């Protein structure tokens, strides 16, 4: 009978890692033996501190040597094996010490008291610097007191040495029984390695585990491991393209490779990727890919642990530049060194996904061949090939498209595109064998195929598929076809942008925008996005939207502005895709101006008529407005979780509806006045339980821009809040949390004042709260309603509400003059990841954006207290903030302030404008922040708020 090997070794030539230069085990043993000889009582208690000191020194020196070797050679898998080998030798030494001090002559055969086994990842012969040490103390059926004492001795010394130890003490019977019940325990014991102690006990476990647990249970083990993998991916976002990935648990990470190892060892009874080649599962190239991916991921993980001094698994922004430097990545035109490193990381993660699919395909085929009896007959019927109308090169295999032979792509390279078109037409998934064959045929995609009109027509059909274009484009991308067929797309595959705003790689973002457009077209977002859904239904040529979204960020990573460069790419690619000259220019314009609508909506005052006129002149036609609106919505929604919200949707809706009559010659379904009237009536209807006079008084409390810019549900919530407060309370606050968007909203109702915005921002900064959005509305009775949206800091809602309560208390103290912003901030003014990101400060003072006020636009690196500093400085400059438009893009802020001087006029003096620019630039360049005494000292009389 063939039994399972005891330990994973990826090369038979090097079963163990040499400790040369890491640990002189013989010398250490000699020193410890000398210490034991000096022990008068023989129990080790008196010499234990000296033994511990010797061991600590050996561990520290050994790990330092391994760290230096990693920095020298960057061999990740070898580093993990060196750490495991060092740990092995340490535990053998501890075992021998334990036998010396707690064992007694004649207390059972010396080799039968227990066996010390490494299990889990450690049992596979690899450890990261911060990994737990997972041990199994295997005891005989009749437990001996000395065996338990040996186990305790080893554990206590490991704990004192600072290791995190996961351990269990069990008999062979208990191991077998628990393995049958629990797949986690079964997997842990599957990967085991005898470090010290009884050979017989370890061999007994090996034999019985193989015969009583493993044999005949491959199918259920594989199902459990794949289900576990799916659950893990779902928890981490179900994408391998998160810009701060989890190297261990994330999709495409080390755990996915571990899963392949577990299944290979369990099902094929192998321990090496070489054996998988012999079994016909992997080709030589795929075996090399496996080794490359494993080594890279281990190198990244080991560097992360060494750098942080702990088991850090998330490759955060803080770590990425350091690891990139450690691994030798350099600056490239258009890409930082860290961006090149992360692109390599995501390509490796993609390779891991490819290997998983190949492996699963082999398992599936094997299961189909081995299925017995009636179940096998039914399965064979389901697997029987079904023809696809219109083609002899492909057929349906188990509801998935597959090639009829291995030469279908060689005979006709256009088939590489045709297979995706057929899958889209017939709503089919792809057989893993077909994807494997496609990957092995990529060399056939060259200039001739790229220029082929039929191939481009097939690609455009896939891109604009009415069912699920994202699925087929994603499969095309994963197979490597998309980057080969459209080389410009290939340049942004796996490319990340080193900032805190974008959640995904560029190619993943583009595919997600296509998915958003498809959902919009199918009517799935009609309730959430009624206007966008209606616009899509009126468009003459839907193809333009899909092509524009596919290309809108395709020029990222180039030295020049990606929007301008992208327009050039569009003018080159669109004719190839079959678009005429007019369509090409329209797509090029959409790519070049794809950010204009979102920037206008979020950073300009939409109640200012000049804003609408300028935007309309930029757009020029109603058709372009409709197309741009849809591109903008899909783009924002695909940036990442929580980026899109109702407030942004309302701003875009308002901008669209304000611009539409300007472009259509004054005709629109509803004029501005009518929409204000409709909004007032809608709110009036929602306040039906109010007295009529009370309703009318409340509706007159708001200016028109409030009704145009705030969603109806939020208007109702505001009404309830203001009604509860009444007119007698000069200051009131209200807090609500949004777990889905991970934000907390704080409403403040207070007397309006030029320094109000600064004080509210300072109150938030005093509690380390990051303001993601701020909406300020002046009421007709002289009060102001400010709604601040802050990013959540706590998972627990009670903790988040307590933080919000502290912010509200800070607001009260500031507005009553009981404290100053500088006191609240204290030592909190350190720049927020300022050493990681470089955002050039930019101040623009513009009098052309409004006929009534001056617009100050501030762009720079975000930090704690920045908004308070900026608004405070504006007030110190004797300027009155009429409206503020706060936009945070990860680490970057772009804020626009509509201001006048104290007599309500524009700021036109060149000298004064220069002074404004100098002062605000100094605020942005100051890491510690600066708030003048006049700004932080809010007197009671200034705000008209008296302390109770």
TrEMBL record:
Record region (Uridylyltransferase): 1-389
Pfam families named among the record's database cross-references: ACT, GlnD_UR_UTase, HD, NTP_transf_2
Activity: how regulated: Uridylyltransferase (UTase) activity is inhibited by glutamine, while glutamine activates uridylyl-removing (UR) activity.
Catalytic activity: [protein-PII]-uridylyl-L-tyrosine + H2O = [protein-PII]-L-tyrosine + UMP + H(+); [protein-PII]-L-tyrosine + UTP = [protein-PII]-uridylyl-L-tyrosine + diphosphate
This protein's UniProt keywords: Hydrolase, Magnesium, Multifunctional enzyme, Nucleotidyltransferase, Repeat, Transferase
Listed EC numbers: 2.7.7.59, 3.1.4.-
Domain called ACT: residue spans: 745-822, 855-934
Gene3D superfamilies: 3.30.70.260, Beta Polymerase, domain 2 (3.30.460.10), cca-adding enzyme, domain 2 (1.10.3090.10)
Free-text comment about domains: Has four distinct domains: an N-terminal nucleotidyltransferase (NT) domain responsible for UTase activity, a central HD domain that encodes UR activity, and two C-terminal ACT domains that seem to have a role in glutamine sensing.
Record-linked NCBIfam families: PRK05092.1, UTase_glnD
Name the UniProt record assigns to this protein: Bifunctional uridylyltransferase/uridylyl-removing enzyme
């Amino acid at each position: 009978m063939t039994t399972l090997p005891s330990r994973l070794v990826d090369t038979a030539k090097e079963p163990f890692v040499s400790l040369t230069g890491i640990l002189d085990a013989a010398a250490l043993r000699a020193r410890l033996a000398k210490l034991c000889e000096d022990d008068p009582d023989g129990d080790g208690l008196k010499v234990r501190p000296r033994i511990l000191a010797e061991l600590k020194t050996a561990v520290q020196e050994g790990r330092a040597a391994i760290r230096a070797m990693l920095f020298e050679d960057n061999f990740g898998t070898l580093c993990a094996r060196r750490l495991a080998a060092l740990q092995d030798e340490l535990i053998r030494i501890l075992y021998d010490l334990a036998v010396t001090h707690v064992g007694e002559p004649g207390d059972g055969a010396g080799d039968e008291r227990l066996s010390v086994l490494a299990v889990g990842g450690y049992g596979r012969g690899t450890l990261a610097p911060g990994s737990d040490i997972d041990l199994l103390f295997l005891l005989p059926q009749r437990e001996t007191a000395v065996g338990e004492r040996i186990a305790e001795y080893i554990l206590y010394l490991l704990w004192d040495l600072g290791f995190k130890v996961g351990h269990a003490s069990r008999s062979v019977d208990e191991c077998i029984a628990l393995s049958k019940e629990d797949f986690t325990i079964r997997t842990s014991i599957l990967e085991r390695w005898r470090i010290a102690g009884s050979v017989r006990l370890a061999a007994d476990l090996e034999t019985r585990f193989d015969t009583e647990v493993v044999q005949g249970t491959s199918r259920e083990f594989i199902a459990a491991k794949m289900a576990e993998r799916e659950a893990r991916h779902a928890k981490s976002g179900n994408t391998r393209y998160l810009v701060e990935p989890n190297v261990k648990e994330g999709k495409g990470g080390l755990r996915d490779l571990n899963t392949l190892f577990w299944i290979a060892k369990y099902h094929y009874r192998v321990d090496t990727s070489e054996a998988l080649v012999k079994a016909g599962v992997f080709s030589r190239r795929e075996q090399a890919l496996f080794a490359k991916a494993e080594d890279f991921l281990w190198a990244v993980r080991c560097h992360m642990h060494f750098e942080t001094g702990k088991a850090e698994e998330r490759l955060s922004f803080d770590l990425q530049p350091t690891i990139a430097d450690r691994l030798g990545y350099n600056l490239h035109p258009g890409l930082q060194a860290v961006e090149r490193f992360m692109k390599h990381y995501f390509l490796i993660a993609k390779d891991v996904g490819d290997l998983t699919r190949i492996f699963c395909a082999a398992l599936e085929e094997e299961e189909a061949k081995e299925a017995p009896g009636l179940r096998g007959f039914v399965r064979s019927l389901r697997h029987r090939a079904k023809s696809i109308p219109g083609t002899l090169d492909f057929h349906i295999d188990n509801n998935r498209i597959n090639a009829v032979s291995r030469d279908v792509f060689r005979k006709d390279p256009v088939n590489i595109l045709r297979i995706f078109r057929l899958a889209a037409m017939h709503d089919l998934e792809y057989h893993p064998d077909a994807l494997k064959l496609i990957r092995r045929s990529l060399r056939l995609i060259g200039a001739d195929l790229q220029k082929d009109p039929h191939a481009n027509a097939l690609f455009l059909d896939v891109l604009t598929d009415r069912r699920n274009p994202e699925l087929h484009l994603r499969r095309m991308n994963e197979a490597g076809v998309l980057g080969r067929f459209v080389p410009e797309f290939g340049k942004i595959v796996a490319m990340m942008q080193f900032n805190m705003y974008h959640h995904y790689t560029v190619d993943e973002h583009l595919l997600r925008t296509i998915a958003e457009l498809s959902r919009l077209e199918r009517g799935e977002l009609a309730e959430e996005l009624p206007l966008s859904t209606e616009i899509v239904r009126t468009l003459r040529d839907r193809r333009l939207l899909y092509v524009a979204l596919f290309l809108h960020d395709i020029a990222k990573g180039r030295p020049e502005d990606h929007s301008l460069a992208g327009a050039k790419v569009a003018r080159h690619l669109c004719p190839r895709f079959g678009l005429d000259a007019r369509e090409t220019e329209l797509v090029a314009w959409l790519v070049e101006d794809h950010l204009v609508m979102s920037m206008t909506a979020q950073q300009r005052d939409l109640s200012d008529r000049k804003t609408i006129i300028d935007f309309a002149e930029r757009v020029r036609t109603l058709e372009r407005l409709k197309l741009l609106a849809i591109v903008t919505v899909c783009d924002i929604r695909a940036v990442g979780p929580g980026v899109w919200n109702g407030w942004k949707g309302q701003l875009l809706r308002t901008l669209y509806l304000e611009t539409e009559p300007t472009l259509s010659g004054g005709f629109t379904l509803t004029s501005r006045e009518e929409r204000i009237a409709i909004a007032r009536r809608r709110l009036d209807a929602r306040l039906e339980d109010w007295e009529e006079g009370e309703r009318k008084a409340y509706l007159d409390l708001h200016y028109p821009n409030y009704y145009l810019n705030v969603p109806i549900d939020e208007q109702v919530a505001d009404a309830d809040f203001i009604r509860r407060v009444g007119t007698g309370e000069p200051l009131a606050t209200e807090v609500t949390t949004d777990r889905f968007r991970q934000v907390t909203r704080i409403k403040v109702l207070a007397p309006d004042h030029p320094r109000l915005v600064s004080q509210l921002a300072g109150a938030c900064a005093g509690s380390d709260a990051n303001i993601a959005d701020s909406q300020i509305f002046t009421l007709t009775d002289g009060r102001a309603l400010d709604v601040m949206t802050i990013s959540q800091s706590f998972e627990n809602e009670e903790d988040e509400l307590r933080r919000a309560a502290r912010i509200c208390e800070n607001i009260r103290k500031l507005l009553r003059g009981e404290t100053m912003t500088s006191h609240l901030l204290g030592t909190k003014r350190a720049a927020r990841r300022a050493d990681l990101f470089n955002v050039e400060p930019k101040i623009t003072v513009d009098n052309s954006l409004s006929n009534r006020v001056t617009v100050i636009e501030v762009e720079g690196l975000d930090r704690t207290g920045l908004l308070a500093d900026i608004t405070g400085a504006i007030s110190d400059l004797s300027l009155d903030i009429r409206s503020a438009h706060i936009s945070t893009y990860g680490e970057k802020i772009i804020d626009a302030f509509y201001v006048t001087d104290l007599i309500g006029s524009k700021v036109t003096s060149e000298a004064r404008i220069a002074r404004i620019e100098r002062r605000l630039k100094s605020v942005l360049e100051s890491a510690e922040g600066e708030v003048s005494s006049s700004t932080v000292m809010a007197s009671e009389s200034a705000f008209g708020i008296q302390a109770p």
